[in-house]
Amino acid sequence: MQNDKPLPEIDPINSQFFKGLSEDKLLIQKCIKCGNTQFYPKAICVKCYSVDLEWVKSSGEGKVYSFTEINRVIMNSKEFEKEVPYVIASVELKEGIRLYSRILSENGKNVKIGDPVRVVFRTVSEEIGLPEFKLL
Amino acid sequence: MRKVAVSGYSIMKPSRARKDKGEEVYTTEQYQAFALNKLLDAVGISKKNLNSMKYGIGLNRPMWPHAMIWSSEVIANLGLSPSLTFVSDHGGAAAFFSMVQGYLSIASGKLDHFILIGADTPMMPAPMQSRFRPERTWRYEINYEMPIGMVGPLSEGAFIMRRHMNQYGTNEEQLANIAITSRKHAMLNPNAYLRKPLTIDEYMKSPVIASPMRVMDAVIPINGAYAIMLSSEEHAKKITDRPVYIKSFETALNTDAENDLRDITDLKMGAATDKVLEESGASRKDVDFLQLYDDFTIIVLMQLEALGFAKPGKGGHFIENNDISYNGVLPVNTGGGQLSGGQAGTAGGFSLFTEAIQQLRGEASGRQVKDCKMGLVTGLGGLGYNGNLLNKGVMALSNY
Questions:
Q1: B145 with A100: Cβ contact below 8 A
Q2: What is the residue extent of each domain of chain A?
Q3: Helix H segments across chain B?
């Protein structure tokens, strides 16, 4: 249950991304014309400007590009205070995109830049899942 | 194109709305009125005079009252009938982009004056727009950052800081140096908020909110306001004997837009700086000071690299080996910046411009950069997803 945490606002551009996560799939946007992958989801391929984009399943594998350990919760739900300290990383996926995610770890201080990680899924509702990554 | 100059300015005393400490408790709307009133006093222009001038009004989009303030509502509040209004939504770069808009309106010959009013009151309570934050904020924050527990700009800045430290060996002592030098400058600036000395020990003991970001690496929010009057050269000379000229400016928006694997430690402002200097007929050696947008210490360090004053990755090394005090080899943020001067919400960047103006008019008293003739001011705003700043710009100001 995630009753008092903010949820993404589902719209026509991001609905498949969050729906996919609720079904244990990490879907990323790929341009049918030029093959560019991009994140976060957008209405157009930022590289070739084609509007023909498809959703492809990511390997879910990547490495930590950068990370932070949150010690104090500001400008967000107080619910997160129960979880501090927690680690959030910018994860670079093999498919050539980066996304921000929680890192599941007993001790966040063990995380290092470059560490290999793999996605795990947290289902929040029928329409929404969130990606999390664990250290390999 | 006509030459454009700063013909006047005003600065309101910073406050954290602590009534118990005798601090002023004003709303943004009050600050807008008071800053304009103070500016008109400073330039000796009556309301009646103003009514007969061809001028525009430029505003930042303030955070308070957590709802839109429309430019037409503000002129209604102020009883003004300008020829043109605009609101800058460039976040921290609102001051920079307001200067640009004002410059273009006057340089084109369409208007003679532009009055920029930067005001914001993040310390004032107001009804919340969302359940968790005063504002509804950016779409990418709502969708991809808040649900996983990120804490706004501090956490976005922490990614950049960690990456720079990892990539180049930048260390806490080097970043502390920026915070401490800013504080030394603030102690010499009556318009700065934090004016007690800061020691390396205090910096190291300050809480880590989002590692490696400490409280002392970030700005302190204040309520405050500034007004800047821009005029054509001809008009400016009638108003003041100390005009400060906008020599040149360049912007860098959403750089590296097509690259999802962009280097977040690179602000990519080098080409813009080269062009600004070239158009100003100056080299980096001619730059008497830098007023660098300082949301975080790391962003100041990265600008030293991005503007070409330090080699890429060597910003920390540069700070260790060069004095960035007002009387050093390359004075940086001589008024204390926002780190110690305080950040008046989205109007925070105005303090960097008023500091440059005071320096070039020779009005910086105890922190005056000797014989200064020209300096660079930057504006940065909007921490992008998987990036650094979306709105960036460099401007050269001079007194010749």
A1: yes
A2: 15-135
A3: 28-43, 47-51, 71-78, 94-107, 139-144, 153-168, 172-187, 200-205, 233-239, 270-279, 297-306, 315-321, 337-341, 350-360
Both B188 and B264 in one domain: the answer is yes
Residue B387 belongs to domain spanning: 148-219+246-398
Shared domain check, B385 and B269 = yes
Q: Closest CB to A90: pick one of B142, B154, B386.
A: B386
What is the tens place of the pLDDT at every residue in A51-100? 999 999 999 999 999 999 999 999 999 999 999 999 999 999 999 999 99
Confidence of residue A109 (pLDDT cuts 50, 70, 90): low
Say whether A72 and B151 touch across the interface (CB within 8 A): yes
Shared domain check, B158 and B43: no
The answer to whether A40 contacts chain B (CB < 8 Å) is: yes
In this structure, the answer to whether residues B117 and B181 fall within a common structural domain is no
Same domain, B81 and B206: no
Largest CA distance in chain A: 46
B147 contacts in chain A (CB < 8 Å): 5-8, 130
